Amino acid sequence: MRQDDGVTDRDDLPLDPAEPVPDPAAMRKHYRAEGLAETDLAATPVGQFARWFRQAATEARLFEPNAMVVSTADAEGRPASRTVLLKQFDERGFVFYTNYDSRKARDLAANPYVSLLFPWHPMGRQVLVSGVARRTGRDETAAYFRTRPHGSQLGAWASAQSSVIASRTELDASYAELAARYPEGERVPVPPHWGGFRVAPRTVEFWQGRENRLHDRLRYVAGQDGSWRVERLSP
Ligand SMILES: Cc1cc2nc3c(=O)[nH]c(=O)nc-3n(C[C@H](O)[C@H](O)[C@H](O)COP(=O)(O)O)c2cc1C
């Protein structure tokens, strides 16, 4: 049964029949008419990112506009994606923090090429970055680690990220042990297996949804000399 709001009852799914399942094919949004022109763009992709990021955070008030999907591929080219939080950006690149023994970090050790995706759907926008990831320096990592809440600092020690564990109890026990060793107010050392990656962009695409699926796609491409050229892609 199709309802007016695009919600379809599906009896082939093992779900509570009283709970209608939204039909993704019926979800159709019209994107804004206001476009993105070459003449609107900042001189560098990071400058343009700063403008859109400000709008995402302050005008559109998106929930966690710094959440981005990081895609890596291992030495055999097998891809993997996950969400992480952007913690800093400037002309040198986009920084996130993670566990250096995690799957993503192992992928990046074998293959530093990475893609970042900012899915700002409520604004009909996305930003796609491709580039090369390098670890941040220890001083930079330590400075950021110090700004984290005490509990997050302990969490970075307690979790052997991406490894298989026997149970939740094991994780909670590991955290409790650390909390006893480093009570609130006690300085937590920076874990050696934890730190940042800075993604130096090679291309950055700004995607603005437009009417009739005729979207604007403007992509900055890095030149050898550090300059940027902009090209328009067909939607
Ligand atoms: C909104 C959100 C933010 C996240 N931020 C981070 C982050 O900043 N760093 C991180 O290591 N994992 C973060 N995660 C967890 C990752 O998505 C992922 O589960 C973890 O990094 C392990 O990924 P991997 O096994 O592919 O290395 C976040 C998850 C979500 C949903």
TrEMBL record:
Substrate binds at R28, K29, H30, Y31, K87, Y144, R148, S152, R213, L214, H215. One of its GO terms (biological process) is pyridoxine biosynthetic process. It catalyses: pyridoxine 5'-phosphate + O2 = pyridoxal 5'-phosphate + H2O2; pyridoxamine 5'-phosphate + O2 + H2O = pyridoxal 5'-phosphate + H2O2 + NH4(+). Its EC number is 1.4.3.5. Residues 1-13 have a biased composition (Basic and acidic residues). Residues 1-25 are annotated as: Disordered. Residues 194-235 form the Pyridoxine 5'-phosphate oxidase dimerisation C-terminal domain. The keyword Oxidoreductase applies. Gene3D superfamilies: Electron Transport, Fmn-binding Protein, Chain A (2.30.110.10). Pathway: Cofactor metabolism; pyridoxal 5'-phosphate salvage; pyridoxal 5'-phosphate from pyridoxamine 5'-phosphate: step 1/1; Cofactor metabolism; pyridoxal 5'-phosphate salvage; pyridoxal 5'-phosphate from pyridoxine 5'-phosphate: step 1/1. Keywords: Flavoprotein, FMN, Oxidoreductase, Pyridoxine biosynthesis. FMN binds at residues 82-87, 97-98, 103-104, 126, 161-162, 207, 217. Its cofactor is FMN. It comes from the Bacteria. GO terms for molecular function: FMN binding; pyridoxamine phosphate oxidase activity. The keyword Repressor does not apply. Residues 58-177 form the Pyridoxamine 5'-phosphate oxidase N-terminal domain. SUPFAM superfamilies: FMN-binding split barrel. Binds 1 FMN per subunit. Belongs to the pyridoxamine 5'-phosphate oxidase family. HAMAP family: PdxH (MF_01629). Homodimer. Catalyzes the oxidation of either pyridoxine 5'-phosphate (PNP) or pyridoxamine 5'-phosphate (PMP) into pyridoxal 5'-phosphate (PLP). This is Pyridoxine/pyridoxamine 5'-phosphate oxidase. The gene is pdxH.
